[in-house]
């Protein structure tokens, strides 16, 4: 019987939540619990924050960036902004990079030395600063300090 169930379930189509577009959900369920969640952006190959409205949405929604990375990002996958070439390698323990480059860490504490100017331009293009009246930039505390949570689009709030 177990073999029959295994065969049955192995042929069911699997939906990879990481391939779904971000969906902020809605607030029409009586819960007024807007919270920061994370989704995997398949084009940029990274997890980004968005404001979840509290109800609905899809399964490309994670409580924290670590869960998103664990589920959707290959542990050994690392790229510099805009797909630019890495100028060297680094790690959490040794963040030494050539002048003009910055250590961008990945899983397991490994990292790439990426051109600082390209990284900054890439970040500005893919994480716009939105001038929305009444909204402030949200930050979260991570192991290395405070980090601004900037989504890919202003609609992600």
UniProtKB/TrEMBL annotation:
SUPFAM superfamilies: BPTI-like. Residues 18-72 form the BPTI/Kunitz inhibitor domain. Keywords: Signal. Residues 1-17 form the signal peptide. It comes from the Eukaryota. GO terms for molecular function: serine-type endopeptidase inhibitor activity. Pfam families: Kunitz_BPTI. PANTHER family: BPTI_KUNITZ INHIBITOR DOMAIN-CONTAINING PROTEIN-RELATED, PROTEIN CBG06772. This is BPTI/Kunitz inhibitor domain-containing protein. It comes from Caenorhabditis tropicalis.
């Amino acid at each position: 019987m177990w073999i029959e169930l295994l065969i049955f379930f192995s042929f069911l189509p699997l939906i990879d939540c990481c391939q779904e577009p971000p969906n902020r959900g809605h607030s029409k369920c009586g819960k007024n619990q807007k919270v920061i969640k994370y989704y995997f952006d398949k084009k940029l190959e990274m997890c980004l924050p968005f404001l979840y409205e509290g109800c609905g949405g899809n399964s490309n929604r994670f409580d924290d960036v670590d869960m998103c990375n664990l589920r959707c990002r290959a542990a050994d996958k690392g790229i510099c902004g805009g797909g630019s070439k890495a100028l060297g390698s680094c790690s959490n323990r040794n963040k030494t990079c050539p002048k003009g480059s910055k250590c961008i860490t990945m899983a397991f504490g490994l990292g790439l030395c990426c051109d600082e100017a390209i990284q900054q331009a890439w970040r500005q293009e893919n994480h716009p600063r939105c001038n929305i009246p009444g909204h402030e930039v949200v930050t979260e505390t991570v192991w290395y300090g405070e980090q601004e949570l900037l989504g890919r689009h202003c609609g992600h709030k």
